[in-house]
Amino acid sequence: MTTTPLLLITADPSHPLAHLALRYARAYLKSASADHNIDSHADDIVNKEGIDNPITKRPLLNVFFYGDSAHLANRLLWQSADQMNLTKEWQMLAERYQLPLPVCVSTALSRGVSDTDNSTRHQLDGDNLATGFTLVGLSELALMMQDGCRLIKF
């Protein structure tokens, strides 16, 4: 049994490494889904024979947004038409491959990104967490790193 790779993304959305992380994730997921004979376009991911595939019980790839990459989870982040909108690109990739998009809650809050619960808890005026992203504690990162995962930092 192989371990699921973990992309630890820390780069700001304007940094080339943030774009490289997305390209790596796309390439890896495309290759992994082909290797596991998974139809990534199905609403309920099953293998091409229509039988539940145990590999789909966990993501093919783990990602964790930390530090300045928390800006990606801001649904109010505007991008000019001549630049790639990394938030939307991650959302589409997550939807296609049933990929969770966890963001460190403390780094997100310190950069002005909040969900409804944290906005209420910290008495903030509103929330701006983009659809598909979730705010989580560092324990989630620790769980992803157990069992000798292959960590790739961007």
Descriptive labels:
single chain; 154 residues; alpha/beta; Hypothetical Protein Ychn, Chain: A; three-stranded parallel sheet; 5 helices; globular; sulfur carrier activity; sulfurtransferase activity; DsrEFH-like; Sulphur_relay_DsrE/F-like; Sulfurtransferase TusD
Tell me about this structure.
Belongs to the DsrE/TusD family. Keywords: Cytoplasm, Transferase. InterPro entries: DsrEFH-like, Sulphur_relay_DsrE/F-like, Sulphur_relay_TusD/DsrE. The chain has 154 residues and is of the alpha/beta class. The chain has one domain: Hypothetical Protein Ychn, Chain: A (3-Layer(aba) Sandwich), CATH 3.40.1260. The chain has helices at 16-35, 86-97, 105-109, 116-121, 138-145; strands spanning 6-9, 62-65, 101-104, 133-136, 151-153. A three-stranded parallel sheet has the order 2-1-5, sandwiched between helices. Strands 3-4 form a two-stranded parallel ribbon. The two termini are 26 Å apart.
With helices defined by DSSP (H or I, 4 residues minimum), what is the helix count? 5
Q: Order of strands in the sheet with the most strands? A: 2-1-5
Structural class designation: alpha/beta
List the uncertain runs: 39-56
CATH superfamily name? DsrEFH-like
Query: What is the share of helical residues?
Result: 25-40%
Distance between the termini: 26 Å
Whole-number radius of gyration?
16 Å
How many discrete domains? Answer: 1
Number of strands: 5
Mean pLDDT: 86
Inertia-based shape: globular
Element pattern in H and E = EHEHEHHEHE
Strand content: 5-15%
CATH topology: Hypothetical Protein Ychn, Chain: A
CATH class: Alpha Beta
